[in-house]
Amino acid sequence: MTLTDKRPTPRLYAAEGAKVIVHGRNAERGAKTVRDIENAGGKARFIAADLADATDARRFADAAGDVDVLVNNAGIYRFAATADTTDADFDEQINTNLRAPYVLVQKLVSGMIARGGGTVVNVSTVAASTPAADAGIYGASKAGLDLLTKLWADEFGARGVRVNAVSPGPRNGFGPNGHTGGDRQRRDVLRLTGRQLRQRRDPDRRRRPTGDPPRRLIRFARRTPRAADRPRSRPWCTSREISVRRAAR
């Protein structure tokens, strides 16, 4: 399964037995994703929403109802030098990449806690921790999401909600015209991804596994014990981040 668009994630969840809620601004694409899932024997429904708008994000959360696994994967990036960015560039990226996850967690996690537990997976980026050319706003928005991941893991962990982040490396194909940055941005992101993968190691000193980001999202969601199964002697704080990279075709 290749990352030519964002549909692999909901398809993989459906294959695991989840009832998937697909969201997006494009109803036609959303309906096709739902059909693909249903044709494969899964269950899904589509809710149109522009998560850059806080009011629409709250409406989406209300329409979604009970959610046990929240994947914050809505994102946008506009590569440009600081002097060339506009207020609209700033607002669009911050609102989509940072405020939308905040609003959804604010609206949905209380229900997870009431039902005994749940999972939040935030889709971040390797550019959040190592600068890439002309990606200041984008990197800052995702760095904020990384901090929220750690904060939420501490805030909600003892009450049964696991919070983690997955940080994909560069890929072609996420936008209508593929990678939207220039050659310089692509070179810098590839460089920083390679360095991070060399530096990030588990406590047992083995390199963290890399691979397909959607499958990492599934892995995080699977490992959610019920609140009653966890030791009560200490908080259940995870906030793990895994960097993943797939070579461009």
From TrEMBL:
Keyword Transport: no
Annotated Basic residues bias: 216-225
Subcellular location: Secreted, Cell wall
Positions with biased composition (Basic and acidic residues): 181-190, 199-215
Keywords, alphabetical: Cell wall, Secreted
Ranges for region Disordered: 163-249
Single Gene Ontology MF annotation: 3-oxoacyl-[acyl-carrier-protein] reductase (NADPH) activity
Record's catalysed reaction(s): a (3R)-hydroxyacyl-[ACP] + NADP(+) = a 3-oxoacyl-[ACP] + NADPH + H(+)
Family stated for the protein in its record: Belongs to the short-chain dehydrogenases/reductases (SDR) family.
Name of the protein: 3-oxoacyl-[acyl-carrier-protein] reductase MabA
Organism: Mycolicibacterium pulveris (Mycobacterium pulveris)
